[in-house]
Amino acid sequence: MSMIADTGFELQGEQTKILPFLRNLWQSRTLIRTLAKKDFFVKYRRASIGMLWAVGLPLIQAIVLAVIFSRIARFKTPIPFAVYAFSGTLPWGFFSGAIGSATTSIVDGSGLATKIYFPRAVLPIVVIVSSFHGYLPALGILILMAAVLGVHLGIHLLMLIPAMALMLALSSAFALVFAPMHVYFRDMRYIVQAALLPWFWASGVIFPLSALGSWQKYFELNPVVGMLELFRASLSAAPTDYLRPVLISVVWVIVLWLAALPLYRRYDRVFVDLL
């Protein structure tokens, strides 16, 4: 008894090897699709206008910001400011909403996680996939708005494909790091919520970073900037050197995924004991 009192109790689990863990995660793709579909419909089922909120919220935010900033600060943008603002608020809204929900996904999914075993990385990924279902109609609104307001839509519109891929990769990378941290440190949800507002203004969501002058190169280290610039490149609204922040975003994705992997390898099997 004295030895137990001296050494204490340390919760440890068997460390999963990389390849079996990745294989189990890949084999869970049907579960991910099923849970994501369920999560999406449950989210909007009781709302009076349903999934129109997924389109309406970022659109309303973009319109309000465009009206306010067109009167307070006049930014020089290569396309109409309303489209420029929406092209930033749309991916930012997906990113911020997804990581905000995914941070608590493992804890919130304790009812399922304590009954059967599956890779706990499934739970934050489910949030990302579910959020993407609501994002696609809003993307159509962005393209329609751009066409109505006279933005030339050419072959560069295909840049939306790598832009969305980077958005999903970056969102899932942050989610996969934040979610296990929240299991051990329950203040993570509040830290993420508090960080999102200054993160919004530090990302150039509604204004070109060129307006910051010599500070621009420092703000481009922000992982979200490259994602936003890639979206604007699809509308011919990105600066000529937009590939630099895009590469920085890709590096962030790689680093975060490499950080997430040992977290799940080491603690995946003991998460349930802390829920």
What's the pLDDT, averaged over the residues?
Answer: 82
**What amount of the residues lies in strands?**
under 5%
Per the principal axes of the C-alpha atoms, what is the gross shape? globular
Structural class, from secondary structure content?
mainly alpha
Bin the helical content. Answer: 55-70%
Give the number of domains.
1
Main beta-sheet strand count, sense and barrel state = none
Name some characteristics of this structure.
mainly alpha; globular; 275 residues; disordered N terminus; single chain; 69% helix
Layout of strands and helices, then pairs:
Layout (H helix, E strand, L loop, with lengths): L1 H6 L10 H10 L1 H17 L6 H21 L8 H22 L2 H4 L1 H4 L8 H27 L11 H25 L3 H14 L14 H4 L3 H11 L9 H25 L8
Helix pairs in contact: 3-8, 4-5, 4-8, 5-8, 5-9, 5-10, 5-12, 8-9, 9-12, 9-13, 12-13
